[in-house]
Amino acid sequence: MIDSTDNNQYSTPDKLNTRISIHKKYSANKQGFGNWIFTNYRIEEGMKVLELGCGTGEMWMGQDALIRRCSKLFLTDLSKGMTAAAKENLKGYGNIEFCTADIQDIPFADNEFDAVIANMMLYHVKDLELGLKEVARVLKSDGTFYCATYGENGIREHIELFFDDFPISSVYNYSFTLQNGKGILAKYFGSVEKRLYEDSLEVTNADDLIDYIYSLPSFSDIQDYPRDTLRTVLENNMREGVLHIPKDYGMFIAQKNKNR
Predict the structure, then answer these.
(1) pLDDT digits (tens, 9 = 90+) for 37-80
(2) Separation of alpha carbons 53 and 75, rounded Å
(3) Which of 167, 240, 166, 249 is nearest to 200 (CA)?
(4) pTM for this structure?
(5) CA 252/CA 37 separation, integer angstroms
(6) H/E segment holding residue 193
(7) pLDDT digits (tens, 9 = 90+) for 155-194
(8) Is 233 within the bounds of a domain?
(9) What's 139's domain CATH number?
(10) How far is CA 172 from the centre of its chain?
(11) Is residue 222 in a domain?
(12) Contact in structure between 57 and 86 (CB atoms under 8 Å)
């Protein structure tokens, strides 16, 4: 789901897979965020679809009916490592094409796609305005833009509450969130709807959460402390063996203006 300008984070799938795994293992909502995202897509027979920041393509695995509904599905990512992983995960489909692409310079013609998807990645884009202009450019006049993102009261913020007694300085990327995303998208799209996904993490093994912390550059201050110290803090915050961490996830569905 990532199209990042941070090549160290997304040049290979390892750190992304670490973050995906904790959601799979400990999410209270067993539907799964990825499955929920797909329930919001309205992809009809013969549509041409572009995903920006496809990551490993794992979310498309098991979505055979939806894939075959597309006349053509382009799965792209800024990282060659990610597109290679996606190609490996989604073998055998004649209507899928894989390539590297930057949302700030999408290598497709105007009005080419019925739907564009960019999940959990817009907050990484260096020039977001340019990126959204490019999305609007390649969408057909009645096209739809789907973009999932996080909010400002989610996992990272709640994890930091456990470390209130530590001298850490937080730097959060709030360039595109559930709180501000609608206003940003409204500059480029005729209508924008926000949908929320209800979920939390119920973690029973502190070491899994420590691996998650080590996978994120935003936790660099916490990462400076020994693993045993982190484990003690997290286990002290458990209640009946469970560490409860709310999520703040959802998505926007934006329709293009016909005069754009």
Answers:
(1) 999 999 999 999 999 999 999 999 999 999 999 999 999 999 99
(2) 8
(3) 249
(4) 0.87
(5) 10
(6) strand 191-197
(7) 989 999 999 888 877 677 899 999 999 999 999 999 999 9
(8) no
(9) 3.40.50.150
(10) 16
(11) no
(12) yes
φ and ψ at residue 119, rounded to 5 degrees: -100, 135
Domain enclosing residue 56, as ranges: 7-200+248-255
Q: And the tokens for 71? A: 């006349």
Question: What are the angstrom distances between the C-alpha of 156 and each of 3, 11, 23, 63?
Answer: 20, 22, 13, 30
Domain count, the chain: 1
Classify each residue of 99-129 as buried b or exposed e, where b means 16 or more C-beta atoms within 10 Å of its C-beta: eebbbbebebeeebbbbbbbbbbbbbbeebe
Task: For residue 109, name the pLDDT band (cuts at 50, 70, 90).
Answer: very high
Return the SS3 of 81. helix
From CA 144, how far away is CA 163, in angstroms rounded? 41
How long, in residues, is the chain? 260
Question: What residues contact 181, with CB distance under 8 A and at least 6 apart?
Answer: 122, 147, 149, 194, 252
- Enumerate residues 6+ apart whose C-beta is below 8 A from 122: 103, 128, 131, 132, 147, 149, 175, 176, 181
Per-residue pLDDT at 12: 53
Residue 214 main-chain phi, psi, to 5 deg: -70, -15
Dihedral sign of CA atoms 9, 248, 252, 179 in order = negative
Q: Return the pLDDT at 258.
A: 52
- 240 found inside a domain: no
- Within 13 Å of residue 231, how many CA atoms lie on the same side as its CB? 8
